[in-house]
Amino acid sequence: MSGFSIDWLDLREAADRRARDSDLCARAIHWLQTAPSPDREAVVVDLGAGTGSTLRALDGAGHRPLLWRLLDHDPSLLAEAQRRHGGQTSIETFAADLSDIGILPLDDARLVTASALFDLVSAEFLQTLAQALQRPSGQDPVGVYSALNYDGLTRWTPSHPLDDAVLEAFNRDQRRDKGFGPALGPAAADAMHDAFSRAGFQVFSASSPWVLDGADAPLLSALITGIAAAVAGNSGVETSALEDWVRFRQSQVVFGSCMVGHTDLLAVPVRASAQATE
Hints:
Order of helices and strands: HHEHEHEEHEHHEEHHEH
Largest sheet: 8 strands, mixed
Oligomer: single chain
CATH class: Alpha Beta
Distance between the termini: 37 Å
Structural class: alpha/beta
């Protein structure tokens, strides 16, 4: 799986928090609060947990105590999550290869969460995960809350003649293997909807775009640098033209704006979906 630094995760967190669809987030919290077995903690398994951004987004989720089971391939990110939250939140951390679903501790989860992860995985991964989360009759049902899945749309203001070519090249790069097989990239939301619907879940979705302006200049600057690095050497974008695009974009981080499209999804078993919609 591709690695992410603590600095990058911290840089994007405020934009992620603003972008999350509030209704789906509230439904995910409601799902946790209405878990069966009220005498024990509801377990949240957070895939690709990083430093705990999903935990922070759902912090204070009602009266019910939660056990957060944070999974990531990078032990240093999990150590940072433990440092930030271990004193006040019930946390278990697992350093694991997330691509091997069979080894993940999913059995007693009430909710499986992920933020900015499922656009990195393959269709096969989603299908296997959906099947793994099917629960026999009599077992507590599990839901899935997946936020900030990139949808392939980016709009810059002011525009530049190379914007479309850079976006096309970037979206091709998003489909490279990121450690889970050929990545879904912009097709992640549709693939998740298909995989979980076939597995007997009802899927709710909502748009959750980043809307960035001069107040987000450090994030915008890092985003431009990251896009350029992904696109460099890609057929269809000459090096000199890309350098011109980067110079123009960096000159506009304080005065311009950018919209990066994402989609949030919540999947709950059809037989229990009323709990997520009340």
